[in-house]
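The records we work with from here on pair a chain with its fold. These numbers are not coordinates but entries in a learned vocabulary of local backbone shapes. To see the layout at work, look at the sequence and tokens printed below:
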Amino acid sequence: MLPQNVKRRGVMLALSSPSGAGKTTISRLLMDIDPEIHVSISATTRQPRPGEIDGVHYQFLDKETFQAMVDNGEFLEYATVFENMYGTLRKPVEEILSKGHDVLFDIDWQGTQQLRDVARDDIVSIFILPPDLKELENRLRIRAQDSAEEIDYRMGRAMSEISHYDEYHYVVVNHEVKDSLQRVQSILEAERMKSRRMSGLNEFINDFKEKDI
């Protein structure tokens, strides 16, 4: 627990991995057990799917509005996927960080690169690796969410994605989800305590000196 007058700035925690390596599972578990973590709500130009609520699952925008916000520098990162635009708005993330809470990004290496370019001091990036490619393929088949063709496509992309591991601050090899979750928690706790994220430390130390006199 921090002293009363010492405040910390939140962490932008970016988790990446090839599809099937476990980043989404770890992200969800981390959210469940840590109340200081918020998930970023992306904006998108695609149409809402059944059951999706504007402002809860996504912020749904038309293409003209989205592009105008891009032009105004309102996004930390954005990309076009299958003709639809997706992005992370700067303002709500900044509000969360300034309150001393953390923002979790389940994001690919390109999005992480964009975040690093605009928020280098705030971002902590972790790349989740599978034990090996055979295990990665097994996990994709076991979860039964994709067709055989889609699994082949994801496996074809895996090495390209993995090749960016050295752009990350940390690497976690996901043998067991429980162990990997603990490692991610340990990384986050250490990053939260970095002195550069703290405000009020000088006053706190000066108070030591005054009480010594």
Summary: The CA atoms of residues 172 and 184 lie 8 Å apart. The chain has a mean pLDDT of 90. The first strand starts at residue 7 and ends at 8.
